[in-house]
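Teaching note: in complex prediction, the entire set of molecules is handled at once rather than each chain in isolation. The prompt given to students was simply: 'Predict the structure of this complex.' The entities are:
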Amino acid sequence: MTKESLRKCVGCNELKSRNELIKITVDNSSKEIFINPNSKTFGRSAYLCYNQNCIEQALKKRKINRALKIAANIDLKGLLNGQLKG
Ligand SMILES: [Zn+2]
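The expected output is the structure of the full assembly:
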């Protein structure tokens, strides 16, 4: 059995492999939000499927805010513009 690191989507709570998910990271120092950040960005992260439903769920229920421990609204759709499949 090979061990693959799975991540949980905050929208649907399904476990998926890293490359099937969008990684959303809040930078520790700047508090900026990065989508699929490079390796120089360190901070709390959450994962979402490349899926409109999961994004809606995460925004509507503020799951993404809870996961990232931030209060401000995130313009996730703006940030994800062009990153979604379909
Ligand atoms: Zn999902």
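Point out the following to students. The pocket of zinc ion is lined by residues 9, 11-12, 14, 49, 51, 54 (CB under 6 Å). Strands lie at 6-8, 15-17, 21-27, 33-35, 43-49.
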